[in-house]
Design goal:
The chain has a single domain, classed as L-arginine/glycine Amidinotransferase, Chain A. The longest helix has 15 residues. It starts with a strand and ends in a 5-residue tail after the last strand. It is globular, with a radius of gyration of 20 Å. By secondary structure, the chain is α/β, with parallel strands linked by helices. Strands 2-1-15-14-13 form a five-stranded mixed β-sheet, sandwiched between helices.
Length: 430
């Protein structure tokens, strides 16, 4: 019998027994990327195929079960959730090599088209972008927003999968890397009032031909951070979202589902609506975590909350050594808008960094310099998120790292609408 240690919000360590679980599938695949941060090196990603063309894309897909091709328009399709059990796997770190990142267009392209455009511009120079659309009209609107831009070739593709909101991080697929290196898609329970968001992980897993683990545990992706080597971090908001379970049960289910050997449960920010850990923390390596910091004069209550959270994390010992905690200043929330510098997106040697019009430039530069120090060689790419931060999220909330999920299984070339093709330029694949 294995076990998991949790450092909980009240400082109590809990050890939960995990039964031996067996794998329902056997596969083979090449070695995955190391768990260290991706260097800013122009070498090609081993997870990205050069076979894609330079057009925006949508496609039929090979079926894992039938060996046939399926249409990616799932407007009338509802996935069958497959229960599976895995063994010897890990939840990869976001700083590791990514096959692509996923952006959900519904809502985003209608309410914040400039944010969508700037995300695509910033990300595609380093990593392919998979854009979920509900229908042809959404795809056409997204194309119109991007028309005339100089985008790298082969780096943007559209896939039709029904979804309700732009918060892809919270409901999108998280992939575990198994010991045989074939990804395993996790599909936790999401929001009862967003059934199409709820179906996205299984839809993506089905299209990619991957097994899917469905769990009744409610886990929003923005409230789950991984160091890539068995440590996961969340806040006690997850206890409120699973009221029928005791804390020890939640910890055990988290550890079993995401193959963690340590679960660290922190306090959420006081007054911030999501309660998610990504609003104040992010891992930059297996042994480094960045944690926000308020001055006592700015926000005394949350200054103390973040200091406690930082102290808890500093006690964590990873398989690679003690966890180093780096503090980063948090922008003011005096106007009840929860701006953050930890809600970042890792993109193969580039860090998409949220910026805001009404923050002090020196304050912002200091935060960017901190990331340059902990991510040497990475390019820091500022993206203005004023168009979405009032809704409670920034970059990490809207962009999902796909990790080892093979994006070439998700789409194939489709002719670009006449007169709508953006100007592509050649690119070096990191």
């Amino acid at each position: 019998m294995g076990g998991v240690t949790c450092v909980s919000g009240n400082g109590v360590s809990v050890w939960c027994s995990l039964g031996l679980v067996a794998c329902l599938w056997t596969f083979s695949q090449g070695e995955d990327s190391p768990s260290a941060p991706v260097p800013a090196d122009p070498a090609a990603s081993t997870w990205v195929s050069a076979a894609a063309t330079g057009s925006f894309e949508s496609s039929p897909l090979p079926s894992a079960d039938e060996g046939s091709r399926l249409n990616t328009d799932h407007s009338q399709w509802r996935p069958r959730r497959v229960r599976a059990i895995t063994r010897a796997a890990r939840l990869t770190g976001e700083f590791e090599r990514q096959s692509g990142v996923l952006v959900a267009c519904n809502e985003l392209i209608h309410t914040a088209p400039d944010v969508f455009k700037d995300i695509v511009i910033a990300a595609t120079s380093h990593v392919p972008v998979v854009a979920l659309v509900n229908n042809d009209d959404d795809q056409q609107l997204a194309v119109e927003i991007l028309t005339g831009l100089r985008l790298p070739e082969n780096r943007l593709r559209f896939v039709k999968v029904q979804h309700n909101t732009m918060w892809a991080r919270d409901y999108g697929p998280r992939a575990l890397m198994q010991d045989n290196r074939l990804p395993l898609v996790i599909d936790p329970t999401y929001a009862d009032d967003r059934p199409e968001d709820e179906s996205v992980p299984t839809a993506i897993g089905h299209l990619a031909g991957l097994p899917v683990v469905a769990t009744t545990l409610r886990v929003a992706g923005g409230n789950l951070l991984s160091n890539g080597t068995g440590v996961i971090v969340t806040t006690d908001r997850i206890l409120e979202e699973n009221p029928d379970l005791e804390q020890a049960e939640v910890i055990a289910k988290l550890a079993q589902t995401y193959e963690a050997n340590e679960v660290v449960m922190l306090d959420p920010l006081s007054g911030e609506s999501t309660g998610h850990v990504d609003m104040f923390a992010t891992f930059t390596s297996p042994t480094t975590v960045v944690v926000g910091s308020y001055s006592v004069e700015e926000d005394e209550e949350n200054a103390r909350i973040l200091d406690r959270n930082a102290a808890r994390l500093a006690k964590v010992v990873t398989p690679q050594g003690p966890l180093s905690v780096v503090r980063i200043p948090m922008p003011s929330n005096a106007d009840s808008v929860w701006r953050t510098y930890t809600n970042v997106v890792f993109a193969n040697g580039a860090l998409l960094f949220p910026v805001y019009q009404n923050t002090d430039d020196d304050f912002e530069r200091h935060a960017m310099e901190l990331y340059r120090a902990v991510l040497p060689g990475w390019e820091i790419k500022p993206v203005n998120v004023d168009g979405i931060i009032d809704s409670g999220g920034a970059l990490h909330c809207t962009v999902l790292n796909l990790g080892p999920i093979d994006i070439d299984r998700l789409s194939m070339p489709r002719p670009f609408p006449a007169g709508r093709r953006p100007r592509f330029v050649s690119s070096s694949l990191r």
